[in-house]
Amino acid sequence: MMRKATILIIEEHPIVAEMMQGYIMRHKPLSRVIVVETDEDALVYLKREPVHLVITHLHDHAGQDGFAFLAMLNGWNPPIPIIAISDQSSENSRSVAGGVAILHNPVDFDVLLELIDTMTLASQESVLNGVSLESFLQMLEQDHKTCTLRIISGYQTGYLHLGRGRLIGAKTGQLEDKEAALAILGWPNCTINISESSRVEPTMEMAIHSLVMEWCLFKDIRDASGSSLEAV
Predict the structure, then answer these.
(1) What mean pLDDT is predicted for residues 18-47?
(2) Between residues 224 and 168, the one the model is more confident about
(3) Residue 41 domain-assigned?
(4) For residue 94, what are the domain limits?
(5) Which of 73, 84, 219, 225 is the most exposed place for a label (fewest CB within 10 A)?
(6) Do the domain assignments include residue 231?
């Protein structure tokens, strides 16, 4: 998934900083990748410009405890997701808690890219609760909106991609496109996370009102037969 985001790298070693910056920019060409050497430089930048993600080393430097610095960033308003790279060995290559993901050297760059996608998406989202997904989709259709909706219901997560008010892609579990969209519409108690900055390649094109009509027909059949469409 291609997305505009500003990523701030804190790295005092120029070769490592250049390598990481170049790698991210090659794989995330829409992103803006800024490099600073110290925590103090990072704080100066953060007070001046918004950032969607910070990548830093988790170690003591300049007399400051690394965890204290992470706590400061994590308490920023609005909160900034953080990827911290630890030099300590661990059997777990990745752990995420409280908006902080910890990677252990040597870094798996595929995992790094996955985390960048996940964490920058979360930092750019607006969240709606208690809103009918059907009604909200029809509002987006009327406004010709281009955005991605990340829908959460219990343990289930799905994605609806809209381009100029039309459904251009959907996915949940192993379901894709229209089948996935119909499954998502059937989820109860949804939280809707909206990101207006995501860009995806269309895999389908369908009018929202046609989707909703098909969902209503399917729902009537499902209610009559007792069957359901679920993500696998």
Answers:
(1) 91
(2) 168
(3) yes
(4) 2-123
(5) 225
(6) no
